[in-house]
Amino acid sequence: MNVKRIILFITISLLATNAGFAQQGYIQQGEFGFSAGIGHYFGDLNTRSALNRPKPSLGVFFRKQFGEYVSMRVAGRFAQLGYSDIYSKNEYQKLRNLSFNSNIFEFAVQGDFNFYRYVPTDVNYNFTPYVTLGLGVFSYDPYAYDDDGVKQYLRPLHTEGQTMNIPGYEDRDKEYSTMAICIPFGVGIKYSINPKVNLSFEVTHRFTTTDYLDDVSKTYVGVSNFGVDANGLPTTAALLQDRSEGQSLGVAGRQRGWSKQKDQYVIAEVGLSFNLGSYRCPTAN
CB under 8 Å to 50, separation ≥6 — which residues? Predict the structure, then answer.
C-alpha cells in the first residue's frame, strides 16, 4: 500500500475519531442564566383569574444536569404583583374598592424533566419541551396608595383587626408573616442556539401558603375598632380597611375576602443560559 495513502487514511481516521469524541464525549454539567418576563396575581381581588394587569419579573438561575432528561435548578426571582377591585366585573368587588401592590423576592429549588433527549452539541437533540416542579420561599409586603396618593404599607395597619384582641376575632391575635412558601409547577420549552447558549420560554404557576399576599382574607371588624387620630379624624387604617364608595361595606362580620382559598401567582419568562460542561469520555458500561 502506498505510504501517502496510509498517512491520508490515518489522518482521516484521527479526525473522525476526534469529531466523534467531541460530540459524543461532551458532558453538559449544567447551566447558569438569566430570565425576564411578567408576573400576575390571583386571589381575593382577582377571583376570576383575569390576565389583564401583568407586571415585570426578573430572575437568575443555575441548573445542574443529571443526564439528558433530568436536572435540578436553583433560582432567585424578583417580581411585582398587584391588582384592584376596579378591574373586576363583579359589582360587589367594585363597590368594595380595595387594591394592593407588592414586591416579591423568591428563592426556589425546582426539578426539570425533559420530554426528549437534550444534547446541546447535537443538532438532532437540541430542542425539548419540559415540565418543572419545585418548592420555594418568598417575601411580600403589600401596600396601597391612600386618597392623597401616599404609599401606605398595609400589614402594620392591621386592616382585618390583627393584634387588636377584639372579642370574637381571636384568630387574628397575630400579624400575618411577610414570608410564605410557594410550590412552582409549570411547563416550558428549551432550544440550544449553539453548543454554549440556550434559549427557553417557561410559564410556571405558584401555589402559596398565604392568603394575605393582597392583605385581604377574612371579614371586616368594623370601623369603630380603628379609632380616630389626634384631630378626631379617621385613622389611615380606618380609611384603608374599608374603601367602599356610595355605602359602607365595612360592617363587623361582613365578608371582606375568602380565606378558604390561598393566593397564587404565575410567572411567564424568557430565559438565556450558558452551558457548563466538559469533554470527558463517558465511562463504558
Answer: 87
Cβ atoms of 270 and 193 closer than 8 Å: no
CB half-sphere exposure, 79, CA atoms < 13 A = 28
Rounded (10°) CA dihedral 241, 245, 247, 249:
-30
Per-residue model confidence as pLDDT tens digits over 241-277 = 999 987 789 999 999 999 999 999 999 999 999 998 7
DSSP-assigned beta bridge partners for residue 190: 128, 200
Burial category of 96 from C-beta neighbours within 10 Å (exposed 0-12, middle 13-18, buried 19 and up): buried
Q: What are 191-220's pLDDT values in tens digits?
A: 999 999 999 999 999 999 999 999 999 999
pTM of the model: 0.87
d(CA 76, CA 65): 18
Q: Identify the residue whose cell numbers are 469533554.
A: 279
Residues forming beta bridges with residue 108, ordered by sequence position = 75, 136
